[in-house]
Amino acid sequence: MFFSSLLDDHRTMGSGLAPWPARSTSPPPRLADFGYSNEMFEKDTERWRRRVENYWNLLSPKIQSDTLRNLMDMKANLGSFGAALKEKDVWVMNVVPEDGPNTLKLIYDRGLIGTVHNWCEAFSTYPRTYDLLHAWTVFSDMEKKGCSAEDLLIEMDRMLRPTGFVIIRDKPPVIEFVKKYLPALHWEAVGTSDFTSDTDQDRDELVFVIQKKVWLTSEGFRDSE
């Protein structure tokens, strides 16, 4: 999940970065270069810590300690989703939108890994696919760009391993749109959360958790007998 295994503590000395693991939640020195204050950073870090805790509560009936290994935050912003997972035994790819603030430097400063991508295009999954995709307002952003949300769903299905999970955090119309395609994609709903059950939730957002099922044909069943 993190670069800390690649960067010795002595390389952070003189850069103003805290040693690992404190650097994942410490305000980076160049935060102001992106228009953020330390207070804004700390609030964002705490907000996503609570949100990730809520996600795990929704996922808990379906996962064990080793169920999730490779995760992707499809709209990483400051990387607080990934930072909130530092105690989990997971690897997180943080994706920064190519048309938004390029906060990748801040993500690197936090000891996290990431890349820049336009979700109107395909994402290279070499050398790994993912056990969980986190899509925070990604579909709303696609709508503004005029790109195909159906194509994005197909791309997410391609990137996702069988029995993997998708967490969509977006506006209610987006959730309803995605629900229409669950049967075709062989995805099933795991749980939902709104602002009445998640006090940290924005009032115009819902959380929808989905699991990808294993595709099995009738011939497959007969061959396994």
UniProtKB/TrEMBL annotation:
Pfam families: Methyltransf_29 (PF03141). The keyword Chaperone does not apply. GO terms for biological process: methylation. One of its GO terms (cellular component) is membrane. InterPro entries: Put_SAM_MeTrfase, SAM-dependent_MTases_sf. Its EC number is 2.1.1.-. It is a single-pass membrane protein; Single-pass type II membrane protein. The keyword Transmembrane applies. Belongs to the methyltransferase superfamily. This is Methyltransferase. It comes from Ilex paraguariensis (yerba mate).
